[in-house]
């Protein structure tokens, strides 16, 4: 049986802080999840949720207190488990005295890739990430966006099957974000598995297949994105043009389930599909002489799920 | 092997692109060049003075460079998080230590080799023949560099550059003065438990006094590069000692690093 790219079971990690490390903080409090071959997996959560701590354990930079991590079936404790992965750390720092080309040569060398092949891959990666013009510039002169791109290049220099990116979109301008999102999608098309973390949900909503939402070191939600944002709780918004309407103009049974407000030259109605039938309301509005201007159906967004979970855990903490 | 080689090349590159290192290396070469003015003023003792000064200077700068370049070597990588880029790849932590060590050795050895070459040219110009003792001294210096670099890497695997530097300097002083320290112990204290303990503790320090090229008393002999210098056998044994001691020290450093959370 082929092994999953990533399997995490009951992972825990705490750090000592303060005088003599006596105080403990526990950023990861027992989490389990798996990443399947070929998917784009989002590890989401607000600042301080424990995303970076989790990714550092996966890549062997820090060691779990409890639980296991296996990468293609190998324990993350052995260096060889990292053969098939690529990793972009959060806000990566570089050997600033190296040029981008030298840096990629060095990282390629770490994987014992033959130098002719490194040269070829370096050129194509620098091109692909849009920093070919700065290939021979020392990285101390790179902008934040260029550093992030160099970081992505080193993460895929070994042609990894499983790519782990910590906040790959941070520090990038809109063009950069679009480029990197496209890169992630392209990598998936090439058959790679991608795990990335983010605290900005709109960034990931249209890219991820599956997500885990982490908060205060615990998993709040996990699953396929399409299931989580399923329409059951979808909100509908209707905008009309016509004479101003009041709640009392509506049939009694609808009054409790809709909200209305007047907008310029018309009315806006908001309701959830659970509580009211969209078609019924539309035909009522037409009969009432309203001109239907716009109808939107809002799916429950990740943002909503995220907010629900964050406020929940805030309450628990209080 | 790929990882170790890449890490050491990178370490070498870092050192030679460091301005302070440049300044030190330049200074070292300059000092060596001026050595021959001393030889000129010393009338008929040219050979002795030149050899003494040359080997002494090379030995001094070798130590200074070793301490300076290695003090921050591990700490800086963790502090600047560049280590994440290396150790998140299939690289065991001992390979990181090995790569760093080899890179540092390459750095220090290149500077002192350049010093040696200038020194030899100087001797030829002054009409002094460069005898085999110069090379013996040079081998000893290389051995001492390995010891000092290893000790420094051990310290830097768990402490800050400043502390590492201080502790290494301390170890160098003690290591070079071991015969004197033993002498003091011998004269001042009875042959009891405490003296034995102190003696064995001193044994743990790198025995750097074995590598001083010149002018020290050694088992009652005055060793001089210009007259009675150490035998090849002695050099062979010191190298065996250096390699063994360094391997043990570096293994401990690797063990410490491999237990550390890199945060
Ligand atoms: N080395 C450490 N020592 C002490 N506490 C730490 C350490 N590393 C992380 N923490 C704490 O663990 C918690 C989680 O940190 P982590 O970096 O994993 O969060 P994150 O989800 O990546 O957040 P962000 O979105 O800000 O990157 C934080 O409260 C942080 O202060
Ligand atoms: Mg983070």
Please characterize this protein's 3D structure.
The complex is a heterodimer of chains A (318) and B (263). Chain A is α/β, with parallel strands linked by helices. Chain A is built from ten helices and 14 strands. Chain A is elongated, with a radius of gyration of 25 Å. Chain B has one domain. A two-stranded antiparallel ribbon of chain B has the order 1-2. Chain B is mainly alpha-helical and 263 residues long. Classes of the chains: A alpha/beta (318), B mainly alpha (263). Chain A binds chain B through residues 15, 56, 59-63, 79-83, 85, 87, 89, 92-95, 97-98, 102, 106-107, 109-113, 154, 158, and chain B through 1-3, 5-7, 9-10, 13-14, 17-18, 80-82, 84-92, 261-263. The structure holds adenosine-5'-triphosphate and magnesium ion (MG). Magnesium ion (MG) binds at residues 51-52, 90, 166-167 of chain A.
Short description:
The complex is a heterodimer of chains A (318) and B (263). Chain A is of the alpha/beta class.
């Amino acid at each position: 049986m082929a092994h999953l790219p990533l399997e995490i079971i009951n992972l825990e990690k705490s750090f000592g802080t303060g005088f003599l490390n006596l105080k403990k903080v526990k950023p990861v409090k027992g989490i389990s999840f798996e990443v399947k071959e070929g998917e784009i997996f989002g590890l989401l959560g607000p600042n301080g949720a424990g995303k970076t701590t989790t990714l550092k354990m996966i890549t062997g930079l820090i060691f779990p207190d409890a639980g296991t991590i296996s990468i293609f079936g190998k324990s993350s404790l052995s260096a060889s488990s990292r053969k098939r992965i690529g990793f972009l750390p959060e806000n990566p720092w570089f050997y600033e005295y190296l040029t981008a080309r030298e840096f990629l040569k060095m990282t390629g060398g770490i994987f014992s890739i033959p130098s002719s092949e490194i040269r070829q891959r370096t050129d194509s990666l620098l091109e692909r990430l849009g920093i070919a013009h700065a290939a021979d510039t020392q990285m101390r002169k790179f902008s934040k966006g260029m550093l992030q791109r160099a970081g992505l290049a080193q993460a895929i220099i070994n042609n990894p099957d499983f790519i782990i990116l910590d906040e790959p979109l941070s520090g990038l301008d809109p063009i950069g974000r679009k480029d990197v999102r496209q890169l992630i999608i392209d990598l998936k098309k090439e058959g790679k598995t991608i795990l990335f973390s983010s605290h900005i949900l709109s960034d990931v909503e249209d890219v991820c297949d599956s997500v885990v939402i982490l908060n205060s070191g615990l998993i709040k939600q996990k699953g396929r994105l399409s299931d989580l944002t399923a329409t059951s709780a979808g909100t509908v918004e209707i905008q009309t043009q016509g004479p101003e309407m009041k709640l009392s103009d509506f049939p009694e049974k609808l009054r409790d389930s809709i909200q209305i407000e007047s907008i310029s030259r018309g009315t806006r109605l908001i309701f959830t599909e659970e509580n009211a039938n969209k078609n019924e309301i539309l035909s009522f509005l037409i009969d009432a002489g309203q001109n239907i201007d716009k109808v939107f159906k809002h799916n429950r967004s990740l943002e909503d799920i995220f907010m629900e979970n964050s406020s929940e855990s805030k309450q628990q903490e209080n | 092997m790929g990882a170790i080689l890449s890490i050491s090349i990178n370490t070498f590159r870092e050192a030679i692109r460091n301005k302070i290192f440049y300044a030190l290396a330049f200074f070292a070469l300059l000092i060596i060049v001026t050595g021959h003015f001393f030889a000129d003023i010393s009338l008929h003792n040219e050979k002795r003075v030149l050899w003494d000064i040359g080997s002494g200077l090379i030995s001094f700068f070798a130590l200074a460079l070793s301490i300076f370049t290695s003090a921050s070597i591990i700490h800086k990588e963790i502090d600047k998080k560049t280590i994440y880029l290396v150790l998140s790849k299939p690289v065991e932590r001992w390979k990181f230590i090995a790569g760093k060590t080899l890179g540092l050795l390459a750095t220090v050895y290149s500077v002192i080799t350049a010093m040696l070459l200038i020194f030899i040219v100087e001797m030829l110009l002054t009409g002094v023949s460069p005898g085999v003792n110069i090379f013996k001294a040079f081998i000893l210096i290389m051995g001492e560099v390995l010891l000092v670099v290893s000790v420094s890497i051990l310290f830097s695997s768990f402490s800050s550059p400043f502390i590492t530097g201080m502790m290494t300097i301390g170890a160098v002083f003690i290591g070079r003065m071991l015969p004197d320290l033993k002498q003091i112990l011998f004269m001042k204290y009875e042959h009891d438990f405490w003296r034995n303990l102190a003696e064995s503790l001193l044994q743990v320090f790198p025995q750097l006094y074995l590598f001083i090229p010149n002018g020290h008393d050694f088992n009652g002999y005055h060793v001089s590069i210009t007259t009675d210098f150490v035998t090849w056998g002695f050099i062979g044994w010191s190298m065996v000692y250096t390699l063994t001691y360094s391997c043990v020290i570096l293994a401990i450093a690797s063990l410490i690093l491999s237990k550390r959370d890199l945060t």
